[in-house]
Fold these 4 entries.
Entry 1:
Amino acid sequence: MIIVCPLCEKKFEVDENLIPDKGRLLKCGSCDQTWFFNKNFSEQTEPLIDKPTNQKKILYKDENINKSVSDLPIKPGSELVKYKSKYNFTFGKFLSYIIVAIITFIAIIIVLDTFKDPLSNIFPNLELVLYNLFETLRDFILFAKDLN
């Protein structure tokens, strides 16, 4: 069964057996909107208020439900639909990407230096480029030593 959040309109696929016949309180994992869902009434998912508020007391259209969200018990972690952010970019991941880039660069240099004789037939100035690259790397190492 596909359930749509009435506020952010995000779609969630939920097992139909998890929702009883009398309905269930749902919480959107994306926008934290809470609403009562009954599978017998599909039009009840639209709240009376269109704009989100910081208050948790929102009444809904369905006349069978005279409860507000704050009156219904909500246990933390008991949401039917949980949303996890896809992007967790941290400083540690950034450093790991830098290390992988450095290792890849060194591997390319080793491969080019190993096969420089056959590749110099295709790229005539390869030996000069590699020599300049090695001299530049030596300059970086000397610069780093001079900082101490």
Entry 2:
Amino acid sequence: MFLFRQQSPSLPSGFVLDLEKAPSPVVLNRLLAKCNEETHPPRQLALALKKSSFHLSIFEESSGKLSGFVRVTSDKGLNANLWNLVAEPSRQQGQLLAVLVHRSLGILKRTMPGCSVSVSAPVMAIDALKENGFLIDPGGIRAMGFRLR
């Protein structure tokens, strides 16, 4: 069962959420690196952004600086995956992550009700994911990854 938190977390003052404008691969890699996440070759990242179902970006209103990001892929039916879930390390990091997770799940719930949602997430996002009903390794299922190079 999809336990979706009813109360939407609010975006901190001075930030805007954008569903349309994808950040450039260079800007996204900069945020990924700042969050100690793996960066990707710009051409591959641009292709991943293009092929994603949707993505959400959080920008600082005053400077336009990318402060949070998540992209979503899906088979448009049964499964969806959240990737590159990150937020600028700051005192608002948890709140930014909560907004990204909640809004992503809201879009998926409207467009693909009943789909299974998985996420590849850094440790910093665990609380935001748990607050939105994600179970860590449900039923003892462990995910594995293999880096193609």
Entry 3:
Amino acid sequence: MRFLELKIPPPAVALITAALMWLIARIAPGFAFMVSARNLLATGVAAAGLITAIAGVVTFARAKTTVNPTRPQSTSSLVMWGIYSVTRNPMYVGMLLALTAWAIFLSNAAAFLLLPAFILYINRFQIEPEERVLASLFGPEFAEYESRVRRWL
């Protein structure tokens, strides 16, 4: 399955996941539930996701390193400050929060089942290959960072 590594950009994976969440919510209306203040809650979680993802992009831009998730070998520096001192993958955390907000908005328990699928896919086909590249580029420095800062949260 290595042929899938670093092939599908994570924003595309998130959009596909969101479409599947919508589809499953439509085919399985029996899993619908009511959430008071659904729109407010979904908006708050989506805003948190957007802020988290943007913080990751801005920090990479300030460090003058690539944000292209399909070319981690183009990384010019190991970013360990700012939001990257809290999570090694703020852009993916932001996408997960946006998908969580979408699931809340859909108000269907079946839609929530795709959140772990998103995490598993991103871990296996995006983060693990990225981390292999970072380990080869930055060696002990990345190993120390990896031991200190969690992959997600």
Entry 4:
Amino acid sequence: MILCLETSTAVCSVALVENGNVIALRESLDGQNHAEKITVFIDEVMKEANVSYRDLDAVATSMGPGSYTGLRIGVSTAKGLCYAMEKPLIAIDTLAAMAHGFKDHKTTRLQDHKLEAILCPMIDARRMEVYSSFFDNDLNKISDTKAIIIDENSFMEEKQNHHLYLFGDGADKLASLFENDEQITVVEKFHCSASYMAELADKAFKNNDFVDTAYFEPFYLKNFVPGMPKVKGLE
């Protein structure tokens, strides 16, 4: 029994997973109000499944990349639960979870094209920059996670022998850029979900693949740069 937390983007999502299957799910797409919602969602999924905290075997958190604030909230909440219950902590690659979720829900789309598929989950990093990595059709990670700036010349090498599927909140802004490209499909409105962590979290638990609760930090990919406060009269 694993409690999964996803807070790396504007989505706040909590799933309760038993033997790799989601038995309760709560999520909000309203924006960056994770601090208000996450503990409420945790309480709701536990009550819905009639499960007590002592029944949990582990807590899994989305590790990033993604929103600095969102990741901090999710990881600190997961750590607090693990400390309180003396349970292990599992960290899940956010982009890998997205790829699993996409493959599970978009299988028919992947069969429409003769070329081998490359799955490209993308998280918005503002302007035309995204956090992304590539996965093959068997969900093997085939590139490092990077922050990349996208333009009309992106993916030239990958398109030679593959059909690319771009999805996630970082891909939504690219629809018009690749609308006439026959080797790129942009799947809009695909969002992160704690439910996509189920299989990966279950596998990690069975392999005793845990992180150090005291020292684990999210994978931010880029350093946090706070905005400069406005000076009255100089806006």
